[in-house]
Specification:
The strands form 2 sheets. The protein has a two-stranded parallel sheet. A two-stranded parallel sheet has the order 3-4. The protein folds into 2 domains: 51 residues, no CATH class; 83 residues. It has 149 residues and is mainly alpha-helical. It starts with 8 loop residues before the first strand and ends with a strand. It has 6 helices and 4 strands; from the N terminus they run E-H-E-H-H-H-E-H-H-E.
Length: 149
């Protein structure tokens, strides 16, 4: 069975493995102008996102790494006058909030996130975490987040 090179996708976890695989595959495939798509999981995923956004004539996707996340959270916390809170705690709380989102990915039920008999925890989410997450979402995705209390 013969598969055209352009129909093959090879995904690795490391850049080094991807480089080695490209060298080996290029040595095996005759120069036909067609290439095998080889890359790390992150690189291949980013390529797919870029193609999707390009096909829809939208802006290129923005990928935030851990440093980008920390910088953005710190900056937003400062602008909202809540910079005294640890960025690590804010990131953990945002992660908890995201994990509680409903299937439409834009609605959070506060009752599922923290009990009504815990006013400090509810205030933490309603006064600090949710506004920061809304701002992050607005900055990066331009999507509104709906909160059901």
């Amino acid at each position: 069975m013969s598969v055209p090179p352009h129909r093959i996708l090879a995904v690795t976890f490391t850049t080094k493995a991807a480089r080695e695989m490209k060298e080996r595959v290029n040595a095996l495939i005759p120069k036909s102008g067609q290439t095998v798509h080889i890359g790390t999981l992150h690189h291949v995923s980013y390529d797919i996102l870029q193609r999707h956004f390009s096909a829809k004539r939208q802006k290129r996707p923005i990928i935030c790494d851990a440093l980008d996340q920390r910088t953005m959270i710190h900056s937003i916390a400062q602008s909202m006058n809540v910079a005294e809170h640890s960025v690590d705690i804010l990131l953990a709380s945002i992660s908890q909030l995201k994990n509680s989102m409903w299937k439409d990915a834009a609605t959070v039920c506060l009752d599922e996130l923290c009990p009504k008999d815990s006013p400090q925890q509810r205030a933490w989410f309603t006064d600090v975490v949710i506004p920061i997450m809304r701002e992050c979402t607005h900055v990066v995705l331009k999507i509104p987040i709906n909160i059901h209390t």
